[in-house]
Amino acid sequence: MTAQDEREHQGFTDTRARSFSESFKCLFKPSRSRGTSPSNVTRLPYRSSSSSPKRHSEPPRRSTISAQLDSKAPSIRQHTRTLRRCSPGIPNPFKRAGSGASNSPTRGRSGPNKKGEAKDGSPGNSRSTSNGFRGTQGLYSRSSSNSSCDGSNGTTTSSESHWAMDSLLDQSDNDVIPYRGSNKDIVNGRDKVPDDFISSYEKDALQRATSYPNSLPPKQLYHEGLYTIRSHPDNESLKSLPRFAGSDVTCIIEQDGFKVYEDGSHEHNVKVLELVTRLEKSDYLPVHRQGSLSKPKLGIALSGLFKHHKDECDIENALSLLPNEDGSETNYKKQSTDRSFDKNEKDDSNSISPTQNRKEYLKIVNPEASLGDDELKLINSLSSKIHTSLQHYLQEKNLKPEACARQEAPTFQESYGHPVGIVGAGAYGEVKVCARSRTESDVPPFQTYHDDKYIYYAVKELKPRTDNDLERFCTKITSEFIIGHSLSHYHKNGQKPAPNILSVFDILESSSSFIEVMEFCPAGDLYGMLVGKSKSKGQLHPLEADCFMKQLLRGVKFMHDHGIAHCDLKPENILFYPHGLLKICDFGTSSVFQTAWERRVHTQRGIIGSEPYMAPEEFVNGEYYDPRLIDCWSCGVVYVSMVLGHHLWKVASREKDMSFDTFCKEMTRIKQFKVFEELKHVNSELATSRKIALYCIFQWEPKKRISIDKLLSTQWMKHTNCCLIYESS
Ligand SMILES: Nc1ncnc2c1ncn2[C@@H]1O[C@H](COP(=O)(O)OP(=O)(O)OP(=O)(O)O)[C@@H](O)[C@H]1O
């Protein structure tokens, strides 16, 4: 680099700091740094979603993103611990608060079968059974996780034995390669087969199914002419796919609907939300007109006392804040011009952006980054509109004083239908599900859940809570929308969208709130899945947890590859499709650590996220940390919660949490942690490789912690059977 370049670069860095504080202010607002002692840490409930009765009394979340510049981003290197003898146990540290459990969608084994499914023991059929299996060949079943975690000595297999899950079928041009379905025929033969036969058979089968290399190559079972159509609402996209109807593959493990077959493949059956099941059965779409304002919080309906909010369901008339695709004026501008909403309002979507102003400095050096020129323009445009509306809100206590006039562009209702129920709630409002009937113009692939009749969207209503909250509110919605939108519309360099990132489609404004439209995940979140597994004490089968972990890590890797760290990974922000496709959602606290104009990664400081999932460095006063490494720690906590059914500790601070202190002491003294040493898996190789990986994740010194990339290359993840086959795996 020449001196001139350096000066320019320096100039650019300064400019970047200025331009971000001006133009990206919503995304780069310094996070609230913690006080002088860990006692300032905000305690968050286990479930930080709406369903928590404490929701409204909770302290506000620290959702701002820090973009403080630090020249020394900590380097990342893999650190492997030698495993030695077991250490004495620690008391079970974590009591699940589960405040939202009662309102959470519960999971069971399976959803109902649907029309158009393959007969004879298709997964659709097996999903509809609750206590066993049905089919024509095998006579074996297995139902307990304990019996499957028997420490047999086989090893697991590579991605050869994967099956493609339904959701990817709709996006067959995506980042995933469909492999085959698993149409397994199993006989519910518990009563017919002697127990000892079952157990010795299963032991062998389990060993075969999880051995390297797989002793039963799936291709041997993969006959032409045996393909069939699995249960999936979108039959059109299935026809082109090879489907496996291997009737002689036996299910050797079954736990809460999760099934592992002797060829090493597996199948998830995450129960769909009751709401969706009901809608699929009904011939019409019920209208859910009640908003939170009209819903009495008391058990008794005092209709006379509760004022009916005039705008309670005006989302159907909401208009998009996004520029039209052809670049013409936005709905927002038309609307505001029509009614002279704000004389001072400027539409700056066409004004000169900081990018143009500083073209000589702002060279794109990192084309992979999610935040580039287009996003900068969108941020400018959106934050200006949101600010203007919020100013008006301050004066009138209404985002829009007049009813939203119908414009030429499609309204919310035309594009997304109407609300049919509530699926959750967050800090700023409810998450509703909207549905509209399918029309002839709706052709696959669809970007959201759908069935034969309807297309579903998740719609998050966002409304400021108090007048003092406006800055935080603006940050939250701009950050959430821009990051989600840019990640889910990532078409730069011809790349495909990531299958594990929730798609964000639109942001609209109604007379009472802002509305974010997203892909709908009909099986709800991981939190609901865990609390619904009361029989298995909230634990997932390790093979199921491994598959989810791999998908989670792939999603996080995608974010990191594009300059974004999630910073609030937790079960509530991990959503599912019924066949196990995992989607990461809620980018409201995500951090942009590298934009298109930067080569280096920015560290940050302050507390972000939810306590049990936060990395220890977040609690160190004033310490700058790499946000990618806090994501890695959170993934580890999520994983352990999936296999243990409870948290390891409430907070990763030695002063505040005895359990975390015990962990640190054990690791310092004997370089082992009893909980990890005792974790069971289906075989010893997987147990060992997973344990090593967990030690690499739970390094309290961030410098020693493994990165997401390296974690994906560990023996554990390499030998984890995942439902999705990724292009680059
Ligand atoms: N696309 C979706 N499909 C299905 N359910 C969803 C979807 N989005 C959100 N939910 C449900 O709503 C809950 C709250 O959503 P989300 O976490 O996005 O809200 P939030 O306002 O960001 O919450 P908070 O800020 O408190 O974390 C989720 O935990 C999930 O159960």
From TrEMBL:
<keyword id="KW-0723">Serine/threonine-protein kinase</keyword>
<feature type="compositionally biased region" description="Polar residues">
    <location>
        <begin position="123"/>
        <end position="140"/>
    </location>
</feature>
<comment type="similarity">
    <text>Belongs to the protein kinase superfamily. CAMK Ser/Thr protein kinase family. NPR/HAL subfamily. HAL5 sub-subfamily.</text>
</comment>
<feature type="compositionally biased region" description="Basic and acidic residues">
    <location>
        <begin position="331"/>
        <end position="349"/>
    </location>
</feature>
<feature type="compositionally biased region" description="Basic and acidic residues">
    <location>
        <begin position="1"/>
        <end position="19"/>
    </location>
</feature>
<keyword id="KW-0808">Transferase</keyword>
<dbReference type="Pfam" id="PF00069">
    <property type="entry name" value="Pkinase"/>
</dbReference>
<protein>
    <recommendedName>
        <fullName>non-specific serine/threonine protein kinase</fullName>
        <ecNumber>2.7.11.1</ecNumber>
    </recommendedName>
</protein>
<feature type="region of interest" description="Disordered">
    <location>
        <begin position="1"/>
        <end position="160"/>
    </location>
</feature>
<feature type="domain" description="Protein kinase">
    <location>
        <begin position="417"/>
        <end position="717"/>
    </location>
</feature>
<keyword id="KW-0067">ATP-binding</keyword>
<keyword id="KW-0547">Nucleotide-binding</keyword>
<feature type="region of interest" description="Disordered">
    <location>
        <begin position="324"/>
        <end position="358"/>
    </location>
</feature>
<feature type="compositionally biased region" description="Low complexity">
    <location>
        <begin position="141"/>
        <end position="159"/>
    </location>
</feature>
<dbReference type="InterPro" id="IPR011009">
    <property type="entry name" value="Kinase-like_dom_sf"/>
</dbReference>
<keyword id="KW-0418">Kinase</keyword>
<feature type="compositionally biased region" description="Polar residues">
    <location>
        <begin position="33"/>
        <end position="42"/>
    </location>
</feature>
<dbReference type="InterPro" id="IPR000719">
    <property type="entry name" value="Prot_kinase_dom"/>
</dbReference>
<dbReference type="InterPro" id="IPR008271">
    <property type="entry name" value="Ser/Thr_kinase_AS"/>
</dbReference>
